[in-house]
Write a structure and sequence with these properties.
The structure holds two protein chains of two kinds. By secondary structure, chain A is an alpha/beta fold. Chain A folds into two domains: 3-101, Roll (Ubiquitin-like (UB roll)), CATH 3.10.20.30; 104-246, Fumarate Reductase Iron-sulfur Protein, Chain B, domain 2 (Orthogonal Bundle). Chain A has ten helices and nine strands. In chain A, strand 1 and strand 2 (16-24) form a beta hairpin. In chain A, helix 6 (165-175) packs across helix 9 and helix 9 (213-230) packs across helix 10. Chain A is elongated and about 65 Å long. Chain B is of the alpha/beta class. In chain B, the strands form five sheets. In chain B, strands 1, 2, 6, 7, 8, 9 and 16 form a seven-stranded mixed beta sheet that branches. In chain B, strands 15-10-19-20 form a four-stranded antiparallel beta sheet, covered by helices on one side. In chain B, strands 11-14-13-12 form a four-stranded antiparallel beta sheet, with helices on one face. Residues 572-576 of chain B have low confidence and may be disordered. Classes of the chains: A alpha/beta, B alpha/beta. Chains A and B meet through helix 1, helix 2 and helix 3 of A and helix 3, helix 4, helix 10, helix 13 and helix 15 of B.
C-alpha cells in the first residue's frame, strides 16, 4: 500500500490555506474515503459535507485538482500518485469552513419556481415515451456542480439576475411534464434570466448524472421564451396546443 | 425564557426531513398548523434519497389479482407474524392513495403500456407491486415532497441537530439542538413533536446507511420516557457491494433480483434452490441474507467474500434503462460492467424494524405530544421488512403522524420550557471541549462498529451478546472521557461525539432485546435457539427507562380480529 498527499483547503471565507496530509491508499478508494481518513486520523475537525457516499445525494461536491466533482465518485487511482491532489471548496459559493460552502442561495432561487400544477380535469394517464425526457431532468441530485461552473455565476456573479442550470433543469421538468398546466416562460425570461446563458455547456460537462442540461433543457426553454415573447403567432399556437396558463 | 438562546416556536416540530418527516409536515400544514422541520443535513439529502427499488402499493396496475388484503398478508408473513396487525392493515389499505397523491404533486413513475404507474416484482410480494422510477424511486419521492412542502410554506432548519427533547411535566414541550455551521445552540418550543429520524445503521461498519443514521430519534424518545419495541430486529440487506473496500456496504438494489437477477456461489451453483426453492432470489431479505452469509462461511463465497449476482442475461439496453444507478455504480466504483458479467454482493446493515412504540392509528408514542413515523417507529414490519414497504410506510404513517400532531396542537395550550433542562443540555454538549487529551470520537465509533459487526450481526449467540453488553458498558465509560479539539464551527468530531451517545443507547437496546429473545425469527437468528418458538411469536420486547436503567419486559401482541385472520389463510390469485 502506498501513500498519497492531499492538499486540502483549511479555513473560512476570511482566511485560509491548503494544508498537506499523507493518506494511505487502498484499492478502489475514492477522494471522500481519503477525506474521512484525514478526519479520523489527522484532523478531527476537518469540515466536509457528505451523506450517502454512493453518488445519490449530491452533498460532497468539491474541486479536485481544479475539476468540480463529487468526491464520493472520484477514484484516487485516476490521479498520478507521485503528485499531490488538491481539494478545494466549490468556488462559486461562500466558504463556511474548509470544504463546506454556503449553498443557501440555491434554495432561495428554487422557491421562486411555481410547482407542478395539473391541468383542470386531467386524466391521469401518461405514456413512457412522453415522460422519458422529463425523467432525465428529474435525475438531478442537486449537487450544484453545474451552478458552480456556470461562468454567469462563477465569473460574473449574476446571482441576483440569473437562476443557473440547476433551475433551468427543474423548470424544464415542469414545463415538459405532459399534464402540467402552467407556463413559466415569463419567469425564465425575467427572474431567472435565461437569456444570460450563452450555451458554453460547462454545466453539461460536470453533471454527474449525465443530464444533457444545455441541449435538452436550456435550449428548448430558450426557444419557448423566444416563441412566447418574440414570435406571438408561434406563442399562440403553443398556448392553444398545450393549454398552459401563464404563472402569476 | 431569559433570552439566552435563539428560540423558535411552532405548533408542530418535525425532526427529520426524509419521506416520513416531509409527509408529516405537509399534512400538519394542511391542517393549518405552523410547522418547523429540523434536519441534520441540507433539505433533500435525507436517507430516503437512497431508496432505489420502489414503493409497495396494491394498485393492481400490472397484476389485476392484487389488492390490499394480499399486501396485508405478505407483510404479516414477511414480518413472521410479529407485526402490529392494525398498522399492517392501515398500511396496505392506504398506500395506493398515498402513491396517487405523489403523482398528483408531480412525481413521474415509470409507466405501463396503457399509461398507468408501472409495478415490479420484489422479494416476499406475491404480486408485482412496486411503483418505481428506474432505481431512483427515493429521489423522485423526496424531491416531490420537498417541493410540495416548500410551496406550502414550512420553515426548514437545515444542518441543525437535536440533542434533547424538552418536557413540561409529563408532556413534550420542545427540543434543544445546535447549528452544525456555527455550533450555536437553539431551542424549539412546540406543542407536538414528530420524530422522523430514521434508523441506526452507522452502528455497524458495513452498512448502506449514511452518516445521519445514528439512532437519534430512538435515543431522544427513550431519554424522554417513551418506550422502544422490537429492537432486536435489525435488517441486513442481502446485497451490498463487497469490493473494493471503500465501497463495501453500498446498496445493490433488490430491483436487480426483481428484474431477474440470479444469485450463484463460486461453484456456479444457484444456491437459493437449497434455501427457498419456491421463491428463489425473490425470497424475503432475512432468508437471502442468511443464505449468502452461510455460503461464504462454508467456503463457497467469491474471491472477496460474497456471492455473485448476475443480470447480464438480460439485454444490455434493458439493464441500463431499469437499473441505471447500478450500472454506473459498478462501472465507476468497481470496474464491473453489469451488462456483461456478475456483481459481487454480500449482506449490509440496512434497516431497523424496531423503534419507538406507537399507537397504530395515531403514531403517538407513550409520551403525550410525541409522535414517531417511518423507520424510527416500530410495529409495521414485525421481525422482517419487505422491500418496498418502507417508502409506503413513510407516506402512510408520516401523513397520520402529521395529522394527529396538528390536531393535538390545536387541542392543547402552549407548554412552558424549563430553563434547567436547557442548561443541562448545553452543559452536556460543551463537556467534551473542556476535557483534554481524552478519547477520540472516531476511535470510539470504530470500536463500537467492530463490536456490533462481530457480536451482534446476522447470527447471534448468548455468549456473543453478553460479551457485547460488557463492551458497550466499557464504551460508555470511555465516552465519558471523550474530548474534541478545534472550535464549535462545523466540527465533525464534535458532532460525531454527540451522535455516538445516541448510538450507545440504541445498541444497548438492540443487544438486550436480542439476548432476551430465545428463538430465531425473521431478521433475528440465534445459533443457540435456531427454531421459531410459538410463545415468542405472541409477544414483543419493550424497553423503557426506569431509574436511569434500561428495563426490558415482554408485552403480549393483541389478538388479531377474525376478519383479518381469515386473510392469512386464504389463498387467492394465480401467483399466490
Amino acid at each position: 500500500m502506498s501513500d498519497a498527499t492531499l492538499k486540502i483547503f483549511r479555513g473560512t471565507r476570511e482566511i485560509g490555506a491548503t494544508v498537506d496530509y499523507r493518506v494511505p491508499i487502498a484499492p478502489g478508494m475514492v477522494v471522500l474515503d481519503a477525506l474521512h481518513y484525514v478526519q479520523s486520523h489527522l484532523a478531527p475537525d476537518l469540515a466536509v459535507r457528505w451523506n450517502c457516499k454512493a453518488g445519490k445525494c449530491g452533498s460532497c461536491s468539491a474541486e479536485v485538482n481544479g475539476r468540480p466533482r463529487l468526491t464520493c465518485k472520484t477514484r484516487m487511482d485516476t490521479f498520478p500518485q507521485d503528485k499531490p491532489i488538491t481539494i478545494l471548496p466549490m468556488k462559486s459559493f461562500p466558504v463556511i469552513k474548509d470544504l463546506v460552502t454556503d449553498v443557501s442561495w440555491n434554495y432561495k432561487v428554487n422557491k421562486k419556481i411555481p410547482p407542478f400544477q395539473p391541468r383542470a380535469g386531467v386524466e391521469w394517464r401518461m405514456y413512457q415515451e412522453d415522460i422519458d425526457r422529463v425523467q432525465e431532468f428529474r435525475k438531478c441530485i442537486e449537487c450544484f456542480l453545474c451552478q458552480n461552473v456556470c461562468h454567469v455565476l462563477r465569473d460574473h456573479d449574476k446571482q441576483e439576475q440569473f437562476g443557473g442550470p440547476r433551475f433551468f433543469v427543474r423548470v424544464a421538468g415542469l414545463e415538459m411534464h405532459p399534464l402540467d398546466g402552467l407556463q413559466r416562460t415569463g419567469l425564465l425570461k425575467t427572474e431567472l434570466g435565461i437569456g444570460l446563458c450563452n450555451i458554453t455547456k460547462c454545466c453539461t460537462e460536470v453533471c454527474p448524472e449525465d443530464i444533457h442540461i444545455t441541449d435538452n433543457a436550456i435550449i428548448p426553454l430558450k426557444e419557448r421564451v423566444v416563441d412566447d415573447f418574440y414570435d406571438p403567432l408561434l406563442g399562440l399556437v403553443r398556448k392553444i396546443r398545450n393549454a398552459k396558463e401563464p404563472a402569476k | 425564557m431569559n433570552g439566552k438562546y435563539e428560540t423558535h416556536e411552532h405548533d408542530v416540530l418535525v425532526i427529520g426531513a426524509g419521506g416520513a418527516g416531509l409527509r408529516a409536515a405537509i399534512e400538519a400544514l394542511a391542517q393549518g398548523a405552523s410547522v418547523g422541520v429540523v434536519c441534520k443535513s441540507l433539505l433533500g439529502k435525507a436517507h430516503t434519497v437512497m431508496a432505489e427499488g420502489g414503493i409497495a402499493a396494491a394498485m393492481a396496475n400490472v397484476d389485476e389479482a392484487d389488492d390490499w388484503r394480499a399486501h396485508f398478508r405478505d407483510t404479516i408473513r414477511g414480518g413472521k407474524f410479529l407485526n402490529n396487525w392494525r398498522m399492517a392493515q392501515i398500511h396496505a389499505q392506504e398506500s395506493s392513495e398515498r402513491v396517487r397523491e405523489l403523482e398528483q404533486w408531480g412525481a413521474l413513475f415509470d409507466r405501463t403500456k396503457d399509461g398507468r404507474i408501472l409495478q415490479r416484482a420484489f422479494g416476499g410480494h406475491t404480486f408485482k407491486r412496486l411503483c418505481h422510477v428506474g432505481d431512483r424511486t427515493g429521489l423522485e419521492m423526496i424531491r416531490t415532497l420537498q417541493d410540495r412542502g416548500v410551496q406550502m410554506g414550512f420553515d426548514v432548519y437545515m444542518e441543525c441537530a437535536i440533542t434533547r427533547l424538552l418536557k413540561d411535566g409529563d408532556r413534550l414541550a420542545g427540543a434543544f439542538g445546535y447549528w452544525r455551521e456555527n455550533g450555536r445552540f437553539v431551542v424549539f418550543k412546540a406543542k407536538s413533536v414528530v420524530l422522523a429520524t430514521g434508523g441506526i445503521g452507522k452502528a455497524w461498519p458495513i452498512t448502506s446507511n449514511s452518516w445521519e443514521y445514528t439512532g437519534d430519534g430512538m435515543a431522544l424518545a427513550y431519554d424522554a420516557g417513551a418506550e422502544l419495541m422490537d429492537m432486536e430486529f435489525v435488517q441486513f440487506h442481502p446485497t451490498g457491494m463487497v469490493w473494493p473496500p471503500g465501497v463495501q456496504g453500498i446498496l445493490v438494489t433488490e430491483a436487480v433480483r426483481g428484474e431477474g437477477g440470479i444469485l450463484r456461489n463460486k461453484t456456479g451453483e444457484r444456491f437459493m434452490e437449497r434455501y427457498d426453492p419456491k421463491r428463489m432470489e425473490l425470497s424475503t431479505r432475512d432468508v437471502v441474507a442468511r443464505a449468502i452469509y452461510t455460503e461464504v462461511r462454508e467456503g463457497r463465497g467469491t474471491e472477496h467474500g460474497g456471492a455473485y449476482l448476475d443480470i447480464s442475461q438480460k439485454p444490455a439496453e434493458y439493464v441500463k434503462r431499469k437499473l441505471p444507478s447500478m450500472y454506473h455504480q459498478f462501472l465507476e466504483l468497481a470496474d464491473v460492467d453489469i451488462t456483461k458479467g456478475p456483481m459481487e454482493v454480500g449482506p449490509t446493515c440496512h434497516y431497523m424494524m424496531g423503534g419507538v412504540k406507537v399507537e397504530a392509528d395515531t403514531a403517538a408514542s407513550t409520551v403525550p405530544g410525541l409522535f414517531a413515523a417511518g423507520e424510527v417507529a416500530a410495529g409495521l414490519h414485525g421481525a422482517n421488512r419487505l422491500g418496498g414497504n418502507s417508502l409506503s410506510d413513510l407516506l402512510v404513517f408520516g401523513r397520520r403522524a402529521g395529522l394527529v400532531a396538528a390536531q393535538h396542537a390545536k387541542a392543547t395550550v402552549a407548554p412552558s420550557l424549563d430553563p434547567g433542562q436547557i442548561d443541562s443540555a448545553e452543559r452536556a454538549m460543551l463537556a467534551p471541549f473542556e476535557r483534554k487529551e481524552g478519547e477520540s470520537p472516531y476511535a470510539l465509533h470504530s470500536d463500537l462498529q467492530e463490536n456490533m459487526q462481530k457480536l451482534v450481526g446476522i447470527f447471534r449467540t448468548e455468549e456473543d451478546l453478553r460479551q457485547a453488553l460488557t463492551k458497550i458498558e466499557e464504551l460508555k465509560e470511555r465516552s465519558q472521557r471523550m474530548s474534541v479539539s478545534g472550535s464549535r464551527m462545523f466540527n465533525p468530531g464534535w458532532h460525531l461525539g454527540r451522535d455516538l451517545e445516541s448510538m450507545l443507547t440504541v445498541v444497548e437496546a438492540v443487544t438486550r432485546s436480542a439476548l432476551a429473545r430465545q428463538e430465531s425469527r425473521g431478521a433475528h437468528s440465534r445459533i443457540d435457539y435456531p427454531d421459531l418458538d410459538l410463545s415468542w411469536g405472541k409477544q414483543n420486547n419493550v424497553i423503557a427507562r426506569k431509574n436511569e436503567r434500561m428495563e426490558l419486559r415482554q408485552v403480549p401482541i393483541p389478538d388479531m380480529p377474525e376478519d383479518l385472520q381469515v386473510l392469512l389463510t386464504e389463498e387467492k390469485g394465480s401467483a399466490a
